[in-house]
What we know:
Low-confidence stretches: 15-29, 81-92
Structural class: mainly alpha
Strand order of the largest sheet: 1-2
Shape: globular
Amino acid sequence: MELEKFPLVLISSELASTDSIAFLSRKRFLVLTKDLRFTRNEIDELYQMYRLPLDPDELSGIERHTEGWALALHLLVQQRDRQPSASLIDEMDITHMFEERFFAAYSRPQQLMLARLALLNFFTKELALDLYDGPAVELKDLGNHPFYAPEPVTGRLFWHHLYHLFLRQKLYLLTEEDKRQTWKTAAEHYAASGDALEAIACYSKCEDHAGMLKVIGVFARSLRSIVEKDAEFLLEHLDRLTPPEVGEYPVADYFRAHIYMNILELDKAEALLTGLEKRLLDRGRPEETSLLGDAYVGLGFIHMMRNQLDYGRFFQKADACLPNGSSYYNSRTLAIENNNCFALADTLPGARERMEQAAYEAAPWINKVLHGCMSGMEYIISAESAFMICDFDQARQKAYKGIYKAESNGQHDYAMNGYFVLTRIGWMQGDLAEMEKQKQSLVEYAARYKIAIIDEIRDTILTWYYLKLRDISRVPRSIITMDYSKRPLPAYGRLQIAYASYLMVKGEYAKMVGMLEHPRGLFLSGGVWHDRIRLFILLAIGYHHLDQHQSAVSALGTACDMCRHNNLTALFIETGDYLLPLMRLARQRRNFDFYPLWLDSIYDRVRDFARRAEEVCAEYRKRNPVRTIKDNPLSRRERQVLQALAQGLTREEIALAQYISVNTVKAAIRSIYTKLNAGNRAEAVSIALVRGYIEGYPAE
């Protein structure tokens, strides 16, 4: 036996420490309670073993109520003397079992604590102790309760659904004051541990609206973190304020405005802040001056998001109200995160210069009011702007200045953008060594600060880097497997463009066009910016490959119209040979609405760059040989199984097709996950496809 490959499986009711989990993860083996739950097929097999076949509705009901927990299934199957059904869950026999085996034996204080915990979605051992009226030593008997599951690392404990339903029947043991105090205690615990939404819900239930607003204030500060579902939740709870409370807490309107900014409902946000400004000025209370200043900051951000160039005046107004700066922003606040800075107010000539001038005029006020937040903004905007017109000397100079100022003030997103500009300059000048140097600089920068959003920016830039060099096997897995549908709306942009570019290089043009529809609508609702131009270039390429030539030429025309008056040529040129066939078609047809002479001048530069880019890619391939099938770590059987998984076959279907047992299929899948360091089927298939271990299939 090869001992280094021997798995040690630990099964325990105790929570592992963070260090232990990290250790086990590196060894690739970590068995959690969720891994030990029965699947839908296994539940069906269990009942068939007892000769109790289930129809689909009954199976769905039992799966939903038991969540696959073995003990819950055992209790249900003990009713085998009668016909099982979904309604069986609600019958008294199961309730009686819970009462007799898992409740009646506890003392009265313990029963009251269990009833209190039934009010909550999850809890911790510390919270349970705070809700217990007896000595702490008596809680040791609950340490191995079979109907809660721990969540690794966080220490959260979740009741099994079936037992939670049972405990909800015990709420009659609690007085209204018991419930109110439970929610109050839980809210304080949740707030301290960073579980903001749970804290807000509990504060609302115990009608402590001051505590609720305090937590909302922490949660709503970021401009780019709130998804639509969370925004709906927050707005619903803010609406529970009574009219007197609305007058007492004007900050509630400020929070509402920030939430609307997060979901890009900028008109509602502006109306709230404008109304708040008038209200605060009319009241004239000195203690509310700082809130007025923060309202001006919000209006400044709204005008920036709309690409209105007057945003600087709002930060100047804010400075008069905030002599010590805003309490909601500091040098650790990252304003743009994984987005580009370049933006235009319109497509008229001179828009680029006006945009840069507005940034330089506003920067001193922004940096002062926001305690260094957005430091380096003006230089990075200038660098991206100069790059867009292929003024590489100016772009390089401004990028270095921006990196220095941004890093000095903790604005790591701007600094990473500076390194991205420098990497792209290397690509445009055909300098592979410079590309590699700047790529390594941004990788080292991300490693230095170890912030999640910086790692995301790094992976997005690395995706661009490897796709330009046609090395799809090295595209970061995070870009391939990310669920883009759950991204906050202001975060749409560069990340989606990176994934669309990945699909383009893979030749999955239909999928690329489809996934760009949502960001297209978001981009069109704002002004002209970097990723909107790239989006229309990608759409044009996709439509062309799908033989939708009219749509392709139209999308290309839209991109050209956004660029030609300000001579923004770089995004067309760096796309290289992907764009050439479509440009030839557009020049031949001459039936487009944009200026043909500008397209002619761009075509020559794209054609010349495409030749230079091919030379860079050839040099890169010499230095970094692409993996071949000889490097494939999968056995022939494993390749066959993974190929079938990629087609969407189940384990049973694979076993039938390949004349092997289901257990053999399961063993092969486990081995595949281990060799590819994948966590699930989707990851394994994606990794194998990009590395060439299995063959891809045309998109539908």
